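Table S2 (text version). Query chain:
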Amino acid sequence: MPHTEHSAVPVNPSDVACIDLINSAFTDYLGGDAAEDRVASKEWRRWFLDRYELEPTVSSRPPIEQLVTLRRDLRRVLEKWARGEVLSARDARVLDGRIRASALRLRVAATAEGLELVEEPVRRDWPWVLASVTASAVELMRTGDPQRLKTCTNPNCSWMFYDSTVNRSKRFCSTTPCATLIRVRRFREDRDR
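Corresponding structure-token output:
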């Protein structure tokens, strides 16, 4: 089966930074051996950083290996959370280690409603980016519904998504290609019986 080139920018992005980082690596939804990893792509990183306003102002090379490690850790922890398992002290240490790597300070801002405390990074660098993505996972677990965090039910697809449908009925990452592909396969299996 020929390898299909995918755009560096996802067609079905999430609204949560940690999920988009997790989905930067994905399997071939058709079941082939091809897997994609967008983390090393400059185009993907530009899209991701712009989307979540995480552009580092301190110039340095992107820590690809750390991004890959964070992606793996976040997938493991979020899948555990989605299954309703209790997160371990190790899970908390992994997340805390990423968040502690970036220093924040409180600032006072005047708004139309009065004064407001605002957190801002001491340095907008890669540790801050990694901490911000980690914080998005913690916030998702703090405020979200674990039953809504899902992986596409196409057995060949690894795409993770947060199901925002009213009745939590979403099963596929998207209608096209996964839902259509599975429906066609089921139709053919039923027809051939």
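Notes on Table S2: Strands lie at 25-27, 35-37, 104-111, 114-121, 149-151, 160-162. The two ends are 26 Å apart (CA to CA).
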